[in-house]
Design goal:
The chain is of the alpha/beta class. It is built from 11 helices and 14 strands. The protein has helices at residues 26-31, 60-75, 79-82, 101-108, 125-138, 154-158, 167-170, 234-256, 273-283, 294-297, 304-314, and strands spanning 11-18, 24-25, 50-51, 85-90, 114-117, 144-151, 175-182, 190-199, 207-210, 226-229, 265-268, 290-291, 323-330, 335-342. It has a 10-stranded mixed beta sheet.
């Protein structure tokens, strides 16, 4: 019989990431014919210097494998024996009806009875998956988990000829971030303090797949699909996005009993420079404490938080005893989440 685990013992034991292919520079877009306006060169609107794109046919399960295997090797973890729960979130599922969880488990040799392909949560799904994993662990269901975020639309949707030079296409990048979560305090590098989530369902339809002529995305036709916000609600979407992350961080701080000014490292999703600046300004957190990978990888959507976390950890920016907070909002604001760890 498995014994329920105290939430205070749950935490991150390891991190990993995978960035596909060689980095693609902004200069290569300009050389290929992208028009650049004076506004494109302004500090807050400038596109990222680099981004990565998945290779043709590169599956989400392969990306997770490439991110997770080096992490498991560093930790001395045997996934066949030491992973009780697998949770994945993939922005563009490779198959219509199945997630990538089963294929990922097969590739890694995971024999768990718990495999969850979480489709909602978007750019805040990492924190959401942490909450789900911690709830299952606290109930006594499992003691270890692999959590994986995959962003794979940049090379498969946004790089289509009809989409390539659109502003949201140019800033997008592909990548995968993973963490290994355990209920063993002795193995954890970071102890989970709490997770705060919020649903705003009324905005769920304000972002979606665009086909240009009203057809469903699965209906065959010679036009590229794209992802677009509701243009009539741009002002409301921007206002909500600016507000959600600071609100969730403040609520989490209240839940966990720390002050926002005590945050040593803030990691958010990386949609654009404007949101990044507005969030840290609202929270009163200096640029040196807000880890930013936007220029190296572009907008990684849901993978942005775990990839940036791995970068911060491997670069030595996260020190023992640091209070690390991760936050983000999804889509047009229908979901937001924040998580706090004591490293």
């Amino acid at each position: 019989m498995k014994v329920p685990v105290s939430a205070s013992l749950i935490g991150i034991a390891g991190t990993g990431s995978y960035l596909p292919h060689e980095p693609i520079s902004l200069e290569s877009y300009i050389q290929a014919g992208m028009e650049v306006t004076p506004m494109d060169n302004s500090p807050l609107l400038r596109a990222p210097r680099f981004r990565h794109h998945v290779a043709p046919g590169e599956r989400a399960s392969v990306m997770i494998e490439k991110a997770a295997v080096p992490m498991f090797e560093r930790l001395g973890v045997d996934p066949a024996r030491d992973v009780d729960l697998l949770i994945t979130n993939v922005l563009l599922p490779d198959d219509l009806f199945t997630g990538c969880g089963a294929d990922t488990a097969h590739r890694l040799g995971i024999a768990s009875e718990w495999i969850i392909d979480l489709h909602n949560g978007g750019c805040a799904s990492f924190q959401y998956m942490l909450k789900i994993a911690s709830a299952i662990m606290a109930s006594g269901g499992v003691r270890t988990a692999l959590i994986a975020n995959v962003q794979n639309t940049a090379g498969q949707v946004f790089d289509l000829a009809e989409n390539r030079f659109k502003p949201h296409s140019v800033i997008a990048g592909d990548g995968c971030g993973v963490v290994y979560v355990t209920a063993d305090a002795d193995q954890n590098h970071a102890r989970l303090l709490g997770v705060r989530t919020r649903n705003t369902p009324a905005t769920a339809r304000d972002l979606g797949v665009s086909t240009g002529n009203g057809r469903f995305y699965w209906e065959s036709e010679n036009s590229a699909i794209d992802v677009q916000f509701d243009a009539k609600k741009t002002k409301e979407t921007l206002a909500l996005g600016n507000r959600l992350v600071p609100e969730l961080v403040n609520e989490l701080a209240c839940d966990c009993g720390f002050a926002v000014e005590d945050i040593d490292i803030l990691i958010t999703n990386q949609p654009n420079r404007i949101f990044l600046r507005n969030w840290r300004t609202s929270l009163g957190i200096g640029e040196e404490r807000h880890v930013d990978t936007y220029d190296q990888y572009g907008n990684l959507y849901g993978a942005g938080v775990p990839v940036t976390l791995h970068d911060a950890v491997t670069a030595g920016r996260v020190k023992p005893g640091d209070l690390v907070v991760m936050a983000g909002f999804a889509h047009a604001g229908d979901f937001a989440a924040a998580a706090a760890f004591r490293w």
